[in-house]
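Lab channel / #folding
Pinned by the channel admin:
"Please post every new chain as: sequence first, then the structure tokens as a reply. Keep commentary short and put observations after the output so the thread stays searchable."

First post following the new format, from NK:
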Amino acid sequence: MTYIDKDKLRALFKWYMQEVGDILVSVLLVDRDGLIVNILTRDSDKLDEKKFVGAFSSLVELVLKKLTQDFDLGTFGAGTFDTNKYRFIFCESGSEHVLVSILNHTALVDDIFPYTYLTADKVARIIDGELPVSPVIPKVKRDTELEKIKRKMEYYQSKPHSPEYVYKLSLIGDGGVGKTSMAQRYVHGIFNADYKATIGTYISKKECEFKELGTSIRFMIWDLAGQSQFERLWPDYLTDSRVGIIIFDITNLESFKHIKKWHDIIKRVALPHIVLILVGNKVDLKDSRVVSTEKGMNLAKELGIYYMETSAKTNQNIEEVFEWIALQIINQNIEDVKDNLFDKQIEEGIKYVISSPQLKILNQYFTKQLDYCIGKSGTTEIIKYLDILKAIEKNKL
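Reply from TO:
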């Protein structure tokens, strides 16, 4: 029998209730036979939990017969069921359990599904017990057109780079391309060969530090489920992305063909000037390769983004992908600060002066960029900047 940390489940259920609001009456975890593993009701004084569980068990037995059949067929993801008083959301949470959300009959399930899938994924990971799981459920908001414009205005008015700021990074691509493996390798330093499909999205945090630059970038990494049953949730989860890693499997031609679709989706809902990179994963499977490096680079060039190849299994280029992204954010922030300074100095008629520490940071930054240059033109451009910096330092300009 699998041990389940019920204290962690209860903490997670409380966050789920808090984010969804009063329309969520109760949340339960049941096994595929209908037995209740854990339950949390919003107001146990008003709701007799024992009677409620008894009534629910008789209902869920009928529903789970259908769900169990779908489990065996491998087709079950989530479903809804309505009575005169309640609305039910049944969401698969691992191979043996179902998360059941009991809602007020007036609830709009489309607004709740993003939170339900997030919770179901966290429940599955608590049961799995391999990695730490935070009970925190971040807000997932569907923006109106007015809110989207407001969000863009806030972005352009935001403060320059601060190590305290957290950037939302989204891992996207078809199911099975290795998104979760990349995230776990980067965040936890592990690789699990057993494939477990992400339910909705898996969220983790990681800080990318540059000691030579005296700064760091903090990422909140959203690993997005790529299966088609989650398609309606993708825009909700990708909203406000500052960075996107679009991943395909070099041994799976279909995953490569779908890259443009993923690119279009994230560009529609992400923040302005999103940093994007295309990644061909699983290069350790070179004998099964069907997508060449040249094809990957050509598609990246067509989309106007960078290209890199990785292996989550061998840890090839995993750190480098996230470092490259972090450097692009730092570079954009430097450009924003520079533009603001130049505008101010032009207005005030002041000459621009660069200090020795600033020269050192710029030298280190461009030298680091050389590690990520693939083509000759990119290398030439970086060397040109380094030569300019040398001239400035030599002539004390």
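NK: Residues 171 and 339 are 31 Å apart (CA to CA).
TO: also worth noting, Residues 318-348 form the longest helix (31 residues).
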